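User: Study the fold:
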Amino acid sequence: MIDIDYLNFLENILTDNRKERFLEVLANRTKYFTVVVEDVFQMHNTSAVMRSCEVFGIQELNVIEQRYGKRIDKEIAMGAQKWVDINQFDSVSNCISTLKNKGYQIIATTPHENDCLLEDFDISKPSALFFGTERDGLSSEILEKADGFLKIPMVGFTESLNISVSAAIIIQDLTNRLRRSNINWKLSDDEILEKRLAWAKNSIKDIKRIEARYFEENPKV
């Protein structure tokens, strides 16, 4: 449960413009689609994907790190790590089972004999969109467990795109279609309160000192 009194206390520190901007952004946030990147060696690519998630309203980014353990490149992410939730997994199987339990279908973004063009993709089901590297693509485990395959139509000689470019194209297309649909894609009231609290904390300097002072003056019964 969100401590509403604490939320109000923190939001009173923020400007009215900041609070209004939070509400505007949250009105366009969704968990209906989620994005997954697998073992992306070049960390700036993961950071760029995170930035695309933030810009186009995807609230959660899932990162599978079986081979490489790297930190988000904050310069590339441009602050997006403050507004997007990052879920880290140490194995493909753990990530897929977690997402399936949340009700997502597993969609591999890669050319495949049973693939679907982006423009024809059915958005009626919550989907986890998996992206691999330009060089290696997605692992065989993901391809074997995928519920569907999605590709971007291309008409040039080049057969693949950088992961960050592919993610931006797909996320922008699907989220735009989602917002024009009658699907219930928005965050719940509880999820909005949760994000308001998290974003308020991310926006206040010396939050630990302020938080400690608040709870010292307002001890829980």
